[in-house]
Amino acid sequence: MTDNKKPDHSRRKERSRRAILEATRALVAEEGYDGISIEAIASRAGVGKQTIYRRWPSKDAVVFAAILALGENRDGDDIALPDTGDLRADLRLVLRATVEEFTDPAFDRLMRAVNTAVSDNETLAARYREEFARPLDEAKRARLLSAREAGELSPDADLDLMLETLYAPLFQRWLHRSGPLTAEYADALVDTALRAFGP
Amino acid sequence: MTDNKKPDHSRRKERSRRAILEATRALVAEEGYDGISIEAIASRAGVGKQTIYRRWPSKDAVVFAAILALGENRDGDDIALPDTGDLRADLRLVLRATVEEFTDPAFDRLMRAVNTAVSDNETLAARYREEFARPLDEAKRARLLSAREAGELSPDADLDLMLETLYAPLFQRWLHRSGPLTAEYADALVDTALRAFGP
């Protein structure tokens, strides 16, 4: 309803915004951050360069917006972790999927672009945490909370620290390319976290 | 002896190399990576721009060389971990020192520059691992090995995974500015790793 009442130019604006952000993600995934330009994005999205510059001051800004937009239409069900009542099995499934995601070349290029942006700029880091990472972290935390209540974790387990213990080694290994990212590695991370935070 | 036999121009070259790398580190620490230029480095080091370009093709390359050079004159004693026979106490000391290092603004800027370089470039990542990170990792690993032999760790403790469990959360928190870096946090990381890998 609300959408139908929107004046045409506002719907057109939203369409062009989405086209720009999709083109940006596709190009970063194909070419990597250094290989793309505002011109290439405009051409891929079928808009003029000025349409991009009216909204975003730089390539950094549009790439970052393109990443954040991935989080826009997530709802709770999309990002909830499985809860079969067996924490080890559920975490292995999730960590193995995360490993696979990080070894996908398109995802790899996108995430390296995000990381550089976030590392260099405190404002972007805060937006990334709030708009992108936090909902995911809360979904993970909810699964750990249910496990703690079910007695699968120690009653005083620090769930934020447990999340870091699970995910940070994988993240660092990926960022520094310092070791293989495999299903066995995912399982070893789960086992380590359960030894540290189990009952 | 060998040094005395070096022809003058070779000693001069080495002196100018060191001056350039020191000037680079000082400038990155003061201004951050984005705030510096080859011109500023040349001026600070008292050399011409061409002297820099003859050796390094880009700002990236000279900044990276400046970081690697920090590892050049390290010897085993400099980087060995304390070994008092009490692993928990020794690791707390070391992790607390690491936290302090990461909260120092000059170190912070240098390391963010390194990380961006390493994240974006596989060749630099490999050089960083081999020339800079590996000797430090081996020193840490030696301390864990001695603890495992003394029965302070489980006989089948995976020491590389234990190092990642100790350091990766701190690294990720620092890179993404996602939480406070405090002595209490350092202690919590040590306790987590010892619960996971203890006997």
UniProtKB/TrEMBL annotation, chains A, B:
The keyword Nucleotide-binding does not apply. Residues 37-56 bind DNA. It holds the Pfam family TetR_C_11. It comes from Nocardiopsis alba. This is TetR/AcrR family transcriptional regulator. InterPro entries: Homeodomain-like_sf (IPR009057), HTH-type_TetR-like_transc_reg (IPR050109), HTH_TetR (IPR001647), Tet_transcr_reg_TetR-rel_C_sf (IPR036271), TetR_C (IPR011075). Residues 14-74 form the HTH tetR-type domain. Transmembrane segments: none annotated. Keywords: DNA-binding, Transcription, Transcription regulation.
